[in-house]
């Protein structure tokens, strides 16, 4: 175990840092899912649910933290966020998953949002809050 | 010379502009010059030599001189100079040595010629003591007369240094052992072609073509230990041997130094400051102040309260002890206290010491920091101009690191920094590994960083650990780097409790992850492990070609009780690649050809009696006894160490240590096993390990009839084969003994003793090799069955048959056995001493064994007939039954794929009575019997039992059946009925034979696959417990009437 | 963060499986093989959403086994450093607490908990409590992942709640 080849220094690879939107080569352009979407996908699987710990914990998690109970509201949120072209997939999903109430909070939990003007962001967040409130 | 690398070394030694021939000649010339005793010139040369050697534009004269310094002959002068003037550096001598040693690769022939000259010289100089200087001078003049004809003739400046490296064509270098301390003198005596290294005490090096030449050269010199061998120095080590490593000691503030001279000689001090010239350094150290000096006229201290210390008078007094200066005792002025020319500040001595008096002891933290920096490390600068800058180390060049700065101002710039002013930088979330210190090898995620202390959460213990950042390194790996904790190592087989063993698959800081035989993973501390198990001699048979259920491959790490096999496969991530499985679900991946060739498995290894600690497996596997070390309980005498001579008995063993209870004082001491000797009853001491407890065997056999003891003990000294023969006698005798006593059943303890005895039995076949393990088994295995039902004698009778087949070698015999039960149902076994068996036995242990076997089996056969009271009839069937049964018992221990066949009268076993009417049976063996039973009409039919009552022992057992076709038939012979195996999930079945479940109704938890020798998982009715039972030990039950 | 990702998986099929039911076998094998696994590169593979291409079986010389390189689309979960996530507290001890974020377990050290929240050793269940907040088992918290460690079968992360807008959520 002490062989030196075990020391894989990370400096060569791009260091992953979500706050700077560095997700690594595999995920920089991958499609992000909202928790609500994951819930929908898992619940509407045509196959039997695999009885794995990972699956069960995830299902429990997405049920707990889903913000939008219907597919309609989830896709509406996506639609709303698409209005802001500067948002990346990751940011979109983070906003929808965390539903920050204010621009200040949003920029705090998703630091990469600094690029977006406070007012515009505030408006987006307000829309989302409304949708959340009035989803059936 | 401080940074002497090879180039400069050889540059010095071999003047670059030298071809071998001219060099040789010029050397000789120089020799002559020397012999003219031009001492002054010699000194000049040396001065020049100190100068830059690459200066090529010097006059030939100078060059010549320089070469001259390198000349071989000059060594002599150097040494002479040393003897004249002790101040001459040792380095000079070393230089010269190198010089003389390294030759051009091309000049092999020349070198050899020269060499002889040197040898002569050496010899001559041996005699030099007796000659007058004039004589020597004239000798030398004569010797070198006319040899100076060839002068320096060419510029060889461009000869690559590597060509100057020694090659096989050069004279070899020989290491000669000499008296330590006399190396120099001896070299001086040896005069030529020899060199010494001051750093290697007790050795000198001589360059010569052969060792004979060296010994010739050294012959007669006092202090040369030719008897200790002349060793050739490998050619690749020659150059490095001659390199001079002079440490350049620069004293820098913060360095730790030792004071060489004076009162504080040997004391540790830290450099505080250095004067401009570097001549004096300020050091900090704990002073030694004699506060009560003798009044020898020295002045009183500044305050007059205390006396000054007087160093000069200290020659007669003992050195005062180190202690911090307490200024309350000596009140000084200002911040600094001056005390007889010494200043004291903050309680520590603040001495000005001459730099030459200090030797650097160790560099402090900065040095350590350098050594642990690696390219890619994140560092920050904590001192100097760039303080606060952080970045990634790009390269490290000795004390200078180049970093790519990260940050607003410097982003991307490369900055060179002294290594000591940077330190590693970590931030929360980094995954780090501790490189040094108490927590070395711990890994974890950084939780917080404060200054240079990093707190991280250990991956293994989930505890927070704080360490200095310099001890950390970013690392992706998880886990401890060490594989050894305590006495246990990764992949050791360890005993966790009497029932459980496991394999360590992960070592953590002070605990292990252990996979036990039940595939449970446990976290254990070393003290929870009772002992390490050896399994190199344990064996298990695989499924012999049956399909493997676990499509995993692995390297066998350990075998436990011949059934659990621990395997290791690097490709498996869980449990570090270690997994456990049953031996019977394995198949060897070795090519089949290997398996069939020879006996397949070395049968001698299969003898459980040999499979030492696990040897308990025969007894334990079956009887549920935890295996114990067979050394426990052995009477021993301690033959070494403080307890030498004490007598005691071993209470426990753990690896190489045995805990011995001494007979005197009732004390238990831990002693190395090699310090123990087994103490025989006659007081003789024998090796502990090599001796298989013969005395124990006899003690175990004591409860049985006495006749077995006799052959047994007497068997001791006889050759192995004969011993084996005796043992058969014993076993049979033993069985007879039990029978004659008329015990219907054996008690559990007795069974155990059988098992133990079998396992403890000295293995007579150890020497004979290839003898079946089954033999040892055969003594014990029938016994469980003896207790099982009234057919005990039948089973006992089986014993002679067993050695027969097993002796033939397990592999060939087995297929016959398992192939078809009908064979056994037949009359092949008519003869109680089957003829076929005998040759089989002869095969492995030819000569001696055969008579033994015969004598052993014959009484047994005889016994089977008269003694078989419980046998309903001595028909072939009677013999057929036990034999597979015997194989079953071996199955149980060795996971042999041999089918279980219930005893003949199984149906009337009282244990099954409750469910009798539900048992499904199949008619089998009617056609192979002679004459055919009921014309074989019902062969293969399945039926339900209507009734069966045990009849008197002399009569055949019968049952009333209703065949599935609807036919009913009373009085069907039970011996032709076999249970029907359950096949499908949820079917109910009766357990025919199992230590725990016998007679219970169970429900199958899974559909059984084709092989009836596979275990199936079952649950007793109304219970959620799950057991594994061999399917062939289950009898299908009809569904209950109510549930139909 | 949950992602939908196209991944590949190589299945080696023994010749005895070649036949009409091979495809369904391949499918179920894929599901069994990948779902619930975890790798450093892709994180947790939670569920296969669809199989894009079961692959052409290439019979390997020597073994006779067929190699299918299967492409499929799956829901994966990969935590990133700096990502803010919601989680459910699972276990509290004096060193900090563990929170479950889906399949991921995140440890929040007491050093990364606001000092106002103190470990209350007397409470049952154990908790970190301040005057107006309490963190105990099954509390929902919003935390920021500060570091991850990838093992062969799981990812472990440490998080912080010592920043603005992090901590207990309703």
From TrEMBL, chain A:
Keyword Endoplasmic reticulum attributed: no
One record GO biological process: DNA-templated transcription initiation
Superkingdom, taxonomy of origin: Eukaryota
Keywords: Nucleus
GO molecular-function term, one example from the UniProt record: nucleotide binding
Localization in the cell: Nucleus
Nucleus as UniProt keyword: yes
Pfam families: RNA_pol_Rpb4
Domain RNA polymerase Rpb4/RPC9 core residues, every copy: 25-135
GO CC annotations, alphabetized: nucleus; RNA polymerase complex
Xref: PANTHER family: DNA-DIRECTED RNA POLYMERASE II (PTHR21297)
Family: Belongs to the eukaryotic RPB4 RNA polymerase subunit family.
Protein name per its UniProtKB record: HRDC-like protein
TrEMBL record, chain B:
Major localization class: nucleus
Keywords, sorted A to Z: Elongation factor, mRNA processing, Nucleus, Protein biosynthesis, Transcription
Chain intervals with Basic residues compositional bias: 61-70
One Gene Ontology term, aspect cellular component: DSIF complex
Biased composition (Basic and acidic residues): 20-36
Domain named KOW: residues: 250-277, 372-399, 425-452, 629-656
Annotated segments matching region Disordered: 1-151, 294-319, 699-828
Biased composition (Acidic residues): 37-58, 83-109
GO molecular function: mRNA binding; translation elongation factor activity
Keyword Cell membrane: no
UniProt feature, compositional bias: Low complexity: 772-793
Compartmental location: Nucleus
One Pfam family recorded for the sequence: KOW2_Spt5
One Gene Ontology term from the biological process aspect of the record: transcription elongation by RNA polymerase II
Oligomer and partners: Component of the SPT4-SPT5 complex. Interacts with RNA polymerase II.
Family statement: Belongs to the SPT5 family.
Function text: The SPT4-SPT5 complex mediates both activation and inhibition of transcription elongation, and plays a role in pre-mRNA processing. This complex seems to be important for the stability of the RNA polymerase II elongation machinery on the chromatin template but not for the inherent ability of this machinery to translocate down the gene.
PANTHER family associated with the record: SUPPRESSOR OF TY 5, TRANSCRIPTION ELONGATION FACTOR SPT5
Protein name from the UniProt record: Transcription elongation factor SPT5
Automatic annotation (TrEMBL), chain C:
Superkingdom: Eukaryota
Any GO MF annotation of the entry: single-stranded DNA binding
Leader peptide range in chain numbering: none
Span of domain RNA polymerase Rpb7-like N-terminal: 9-64
Gene3D superfamilies linked: Nucleic acid-binding proteins, RNA polymerase Rpb7-like, N-terminal domain
Main location class: nucleus
GO cellular component labels: P-body; RNA polymerase II, core complex
Organism: Roridomyces roridus
Family (UniProt): Belongs to the eukaryotic RPB7/RPC8 RNA polymerase subunit family.
Record-annotated membrane-spanning stretches: none
Keywords: DNA-directed RNA polymerase, Nucleus, Transcription
BP term (GO), one: transcription initiation at RNA polymerase II promoter
Every S1 motif domain range: 78-155
Compartments it resides in: Nucleus
Name of the protein described by the UniProt record: RNA polymerase Rpb7
PANTHER family: DNA-DIRECTED RNA POLYMERASE II SUBUNIT RPB7 (PTHR12709:SF4), DNA-DIRECTED RNA POLYMERASE II, III (PTHR12709)
């Amino acid at each position: 175990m002490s062989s030196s080849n075990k020391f894989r220094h990370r400096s060569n690879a791009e260091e992953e840092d979500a706050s700077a939107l560095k997700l690594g080569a595999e995920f920089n352009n991958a499609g992000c899912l909202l928790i609500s979407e994951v819930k929908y996908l898992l619940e509407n699987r045509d196959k039997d649910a695999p009885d794995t710990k990972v699956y069960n914990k995830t299902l429990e998690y997405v049920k707990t933290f889903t913000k939008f109970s219907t597919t309609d509201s989830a896709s509406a949120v996506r639609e709303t966020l698409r209005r802001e072209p500067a948002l990346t997939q990751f940011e979109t999903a983070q906003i929808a998953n965390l539903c920050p109430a204010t621009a200040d909070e949003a920029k705090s939990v998703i630091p990469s949002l600094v690029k977006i003007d406070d007012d515009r962001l505030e408006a987006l967040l307000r829309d989302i809050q409304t949708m959340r409130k009035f989803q059936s | 010379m401080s940074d002497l690398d090879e180039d400069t070394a050889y540059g010095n030694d071999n003047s670059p502009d030298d071809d071998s021939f001219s060099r040789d000649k010029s050397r000789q010339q120089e020799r002559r010059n020397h012999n003219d005793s031009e001492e002054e010139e010699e000194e000049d040369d040396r001065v020049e030599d100190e100068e830059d050697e690459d200066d090529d534009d010097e006059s030939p004269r100078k060059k010549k001189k320089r070469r001259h310094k390198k000349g071989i002959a000059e060594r002599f002068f150097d040494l002479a100079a040393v003897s004249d003037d002790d101040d001459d550096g040792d380095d000079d001598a070393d230089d010269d040595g190198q010089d003389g040693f390294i030759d051009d690769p091309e000049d092999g022939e020349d070198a050899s010629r020269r060499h002889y000259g040197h040898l002569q010289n050496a010899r001559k100089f041996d005699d030099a003591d007796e000659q007058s200087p004039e004589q020597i001078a004239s000798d030398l003049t004569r010797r070198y007369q006319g040899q100076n004809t060839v002068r320096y003739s060419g510029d060889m400046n461009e000869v690559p240094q590597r060509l100057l490296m020694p090659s096989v064509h050069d004279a070899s270098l020989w290491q000669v052992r000499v008296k330590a301390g006399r190396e120099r003198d001896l070299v001086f005596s040896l005069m030529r072609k020899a060199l010494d290294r001051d750093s290697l005490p007790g050795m000198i090096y001589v360059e010569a073509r052969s060792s004979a030449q060296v010994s010739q050269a050294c012959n007669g010199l006092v202090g040369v230990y030719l008897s200790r061998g002349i060793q050739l120095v490998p050619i690749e080590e020659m150059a490095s041997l001659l390199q001079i490593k002079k440490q350049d000691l620069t004293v820098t503030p913060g360095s730790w130094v030792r004071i060489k001279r004076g009162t504080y000689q040997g004391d540790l001090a830290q450099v505080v400051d250095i004067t401009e010239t570097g001549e004096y350094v300020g050091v900090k150290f704990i002073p030694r102040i004699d506060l009560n000096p003798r009044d020898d006229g020295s002045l009183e201290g500044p305050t007059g309260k205390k006396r000054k210390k007087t160093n000069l008078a200290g020659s007669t007094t003992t050195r005062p002890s180190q202690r911090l200066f307490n200024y309350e005792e000596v009140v000084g002025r200002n911040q600094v206290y001056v005390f007889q020319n010494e200043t004291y500040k903050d309680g520590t001595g603040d001495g000005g010491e001459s730099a030459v008096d200090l030797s650097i002891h160790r560099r402090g933290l900065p040095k350590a920091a350098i050594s642990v920096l690696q390219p890619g490390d994140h560092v920050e600068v904590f001192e100097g101009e760039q303080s606060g800058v952080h970045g990634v180390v790009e390269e490290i060049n000795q004390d200078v690191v180049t970093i790519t700065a990260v940050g607003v101002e410097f982003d991307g710039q490369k900055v060179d920094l002294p290594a000591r002013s940077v330190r590693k930088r970590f931030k929360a979330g980094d995954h780090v590994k501790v490189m040094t210190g108490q927590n070395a090898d711990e890994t974890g995620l950084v939780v917080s960083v404060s200054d240079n202390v990093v707190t991280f959460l250990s991956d293994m213990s989930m505890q927070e650990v704080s360490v200095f950042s310099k001890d950390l390194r970013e690392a992706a790996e998880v886990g401890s780097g060490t594989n050894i904790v305590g006495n246990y190592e990764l992949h050791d087989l360890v005993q966790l409790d009497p029932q459980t063993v496991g394999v360590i698959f992960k070592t953590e800081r002070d605990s292990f992850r252990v996979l036990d035989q039940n595939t449970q993973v446990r976290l254990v501390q070393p003290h929870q492990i009772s002992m390490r198990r050896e399994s190199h001699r344990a064996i298990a048979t695989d499924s012999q070609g049956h399909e493997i259920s676990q499509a995993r491959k692995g390297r066998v790490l350990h075998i436990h009780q011949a059934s659990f096999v621990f395997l290791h496969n690097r490709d498996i991530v869980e449990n570090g690649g270690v997994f456990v499985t049953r031996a019977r679900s394995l198949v060897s991946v070795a090519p089949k050809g290997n398996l069939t060739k020879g006996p397949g498995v070395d049968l001698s290894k299969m003898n459980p009696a040999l499979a030492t600690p696990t040897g308990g497996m025969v007894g334990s596997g079956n009887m549920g006894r935890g295996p114990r070390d067979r050394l426990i309980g052995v009477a021993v005498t301690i033959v070494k160490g403080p307890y030498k001579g004490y007598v005691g008995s071993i209470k426990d063993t753990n690896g190489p240590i045995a805990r011995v209870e001494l007979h005197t004082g009732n004390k238990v001491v831990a002693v190395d096993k090699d310090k123990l000797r087994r103490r025989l009853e006659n007081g003789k001491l024998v090796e502990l390990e090599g001796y298989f407890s013969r005395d124990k065997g006899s003690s175990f056999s004591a409860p049985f009839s006495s006749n077995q003891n006799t052959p047994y003990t007497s068997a001791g000294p006889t050759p192995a084969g004969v011993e084996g023969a005796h043992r058969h006698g014993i076993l049979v005798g033993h069985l007879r003994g039990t029978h004659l006593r008329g015990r219907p059943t054996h008690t559990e303890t007795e069974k155990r003793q059988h098992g133990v005895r079998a396992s403890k039995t000295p293995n007579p076949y150890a020497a004979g090799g290839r003898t079946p393990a089954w033999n040892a088994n055969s003594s014990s295995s029938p016994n469980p069955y003896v207790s099982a039902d009234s057919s005990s004698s039948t089973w006992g009778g089986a014993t002679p048959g067993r050695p027969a087949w097993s002796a033939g070698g397990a592999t060939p015999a087995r297929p016959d056995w398992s192939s078809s039960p009908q064979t056994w149902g037949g009359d092949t076994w008519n003869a109680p001493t089957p003829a076929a068996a005998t040759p089989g036995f002869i095969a492995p242990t030819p000569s001696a064994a055969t008579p033994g076997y015969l004598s052993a089996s014959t009484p047994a056969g005889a016994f089977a007939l008269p003694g078989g009271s419980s046998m309903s009839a001595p028909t072939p069937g009677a013999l057929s039954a036990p034999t597979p049964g015997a194989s079953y018992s071996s199955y149980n221990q060795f996971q042999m794929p041999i089918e279980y066949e219930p005893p003949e009268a199984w149906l009337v076993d009282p244990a099954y009575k409750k469910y009798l009417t539900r048992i499904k049976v199949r008619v089998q063996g009617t056609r192979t019997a002679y004459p055919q039973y009921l014309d074989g009409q019902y062969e293969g039919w399945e039926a339900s039992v209507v009734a069966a009552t045990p009849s008197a022992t002399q009569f055949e057992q019968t049952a009333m059946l209703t065949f599935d076709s609807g036919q009913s038939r009373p009085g069907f012979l039970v011996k032709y009925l076999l249970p029907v195996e359950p096949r499908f999930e949820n079917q109910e079945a009766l357990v025919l034979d199992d230590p725990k479940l016998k007679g219970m109704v169970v429900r199958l938890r899974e559909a059984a696959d084709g092989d009836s020798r596979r275990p199936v998982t079952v649950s007793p009715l109304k219970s959620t417990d799950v057991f594994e039972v061999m399917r062939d030990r289950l009898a299908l039950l009809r569904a209950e009437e109510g549930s139909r | 963060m949950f992602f939908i990702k196209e991944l590949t998986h190589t299945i080696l099929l023994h010749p005895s499986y070649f036949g009409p039911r091979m495809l369904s076998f391949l499918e179920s094998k894929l599901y069994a093989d990948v779902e619930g696994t975890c790798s450093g590169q892709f994180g947790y593979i939670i569920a296969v959403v669809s199989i894009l291409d079961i692959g052409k079986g290439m019979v390997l010389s020597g073994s006779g086994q067929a190699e299918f390189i299967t492409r499929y689309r799956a829901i994966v979960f990969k935590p990133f450093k700096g990502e803010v996530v919601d989680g459910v507290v699972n276990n509290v001890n004096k060193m900090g607490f563990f929170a479950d974020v889906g399949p991921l377990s995140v440890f929040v050290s007491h050093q990364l908990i606001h000092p106002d929240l103190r470990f209350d050793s007397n409470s049952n269940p154990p908790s970190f409590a301040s005057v107006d907040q309490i963190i105990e088992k099954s509390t929902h918290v919003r935390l920021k992942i500060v570091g991850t460690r990838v093992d062969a079968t799981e990812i472990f992360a440490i998080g912080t709640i010592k920043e603005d807008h992090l901590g207990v959520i309703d």
